Amino acid sequence: MKSNYKPIGDYIRLVDERNVGLKVTTLLGLSISKESIPSVANTIGSDMENYKEKSNSLAV
């Protein structure tokens, strides 16, 4: 039986963009319906440079 599967790496790429220079100050979370919402977490004293940036575009 011949497999029609292709490696997922043919369609995606790794993106690791951190919040260097504190370009983003609003922390987002995910709702149950998988939508981005403002986080309700206490971020006082958190180093926001360790968080990843959210991309507004879809990778194709």
Round the Cα radius of gyration to an integer and report it. 17 Å
Spell out the helices and strands N to C: EE
Number of strands: 2
Count the helices. How many? 0
Which residues form runs of ≥5 with pLDDT under 50?
A: none
Strand order of the largest sheet: 1-2
Return the average pLDDT rounded to an integer.
Answer: 77
Shape: elongated
Description:
The chain has 60 residues and is mostly loops. Helices cover 0% and strands 10% of the residues. The protein has strands at residues 28-30, 36-38. It starts with 27 loop residues before the first strand and ends in a 22-residue tail after the last strand. The relative contact order is 0.30.
How does the SSE layout of this entry go?
Layout: E1 28-30, E2 36-38
Antiparallel strand pairs: 1-2
Short overview:
By secondary structure, this protein is mostly loops. The chain is built from no helices and two strands. 0% of the residues are buried.
Search tags:
two-stranded antiparallel sheet; elongated; 2 strands; little secondary structure; 60 residues
